[in-house]
Structures are given as structure tokens and as C-alpha cells.
Amino acid sequence: MAKVGGPLMSMSASGRFGELVFDQRGWVRKFTPPANPQSVDQMTQRNTLGDIQRSLKELGLVIRGELKAGLGYRWNSIVLGELLANSGAALAAYVAEYGAFQAGEKTAWESADTSTPVELTAGAVLYAVASAVYDVCLRMGVTVSLTLPANDNAATVGAEWIDDTP
């Protein structure tokens, strides 16, 4: 239902009125029903984005505070942009690096990963997101208490990732 301030079309309106949609800026457009085809590619992209977000939600107070202080309130978007830019080239590169790890190293990363990924494998998500956070902070000159993720330091990075002790 549209909310109208004054007679219709004379002052302001917002919302939907029949086939017309009024927005807060004063624009009017024809209503088009939202499309959600749920294609395989779309669901893969959504699940990958969800995996990254679940891993970022596991961040402890220490690194989260350092990211907010150094990168600002949009730190989450910066990390996502790093991973998903160029059709996910950085994410694919980090996952490929993780794929080259030995079986024992993968097991260590899987046990350090406290998120529950859907699309990517456990361990690969933590490695990719931690690597992206480290690289972004290094490039932007932000000090963060995160060791450079590597094949043999899953326990160290995992402990730093979820640390709540300021």
C-alpha cells in the first residue's frame, strides 16, 4: 500500500499503488515482480557468499576491532570485494593453494575452521578468508594480529581468528 503525503501526485508518495511504485526520491516506475530463478550458478554464488560470511562471523573481538579501526565500518565489504573481484579470482587462487596442502595440513585447517560451509570445504574457507584479510591489511597498511596463513600454521591462525581476549 502506498503512503501519500497530500493529494496523490501533488506532494510525496512512497510504496506501491496498483502498477505504480513510488520511492522516497520522488521517482515513479512500473511494478515488476522480482525474479528469483534459483539457477545452479546463482545458488552456487549465494552459497559461496554465505560460506565467506559465516567465516567472517567467527571473528573474535581482537581482529574485528582492528579491522574496524583500520579499514572503517565497511571492512566486511572490503574483504568480500577482495575475494569476489574478477569473478572470484582471488578466492579461486586461495582455494587452489589450499588444495595443494598435504592431507594432515588440510585436517588441521578443517579442525581450526569453526564455521559450517555449504559450497566450499571446511578449512578452505578459513584459509581463503584469513589470507584475504591478511593481504588486504598488508596492502592498506593496517596492523592486524593475524599470522600469515600458511600450510603448517592452522592452529595459530585459527586461535587468532576466534580470539575474544582484547
Shape: elongated
What's the story with the biggest beta sheet? 4 strands, antiparallel
Radius of gyration computed on alpha carbons:
21 Å
* N to C succession of SSEs: EEEEHHHHHH
For the largest sheet, list the strands in their spatial order: 1-2-3-4
SS element count, helices: 6
- Return the average pLDDT rounded to an integer: 90
User: What gap, in angstroms, lies between the N and C termini?
Assistant: 48 Å
How many strands appear in the DSSP assignment? 4
Give the tally of structural domains. 2
Structural class: alpha+beta
Percent of residues in helices comes to 40-55%
User: Unreliable runs, pLDDT <50, ≥5 residues?
Assistant: none
Strand content: 5-15%
Description of the structure:
The structure is a single chain. The chain folds into two domains: 1-34, no CATH class; 40-161, no CATH class. Helix 3 packs across helix 5 (124-140) and helix 4 (103-112) packs parallel to helix 6 (154-161). It is elongated. By secondary structure, it is α+β, with helices and mostly antiparallel strands. The chain is 54% helix and 9% strand. It starts with a strand and ends in a 5-residue tail after the last helix. The longest helix is centred in the middle third of the chain and has 25 residues, at 75-99. The chain is built from six helices and four strands; from the N terminus they run ββββαααααα.
Give a summary of the structure in a few sentences:
The protein is of the alpha+beta class.
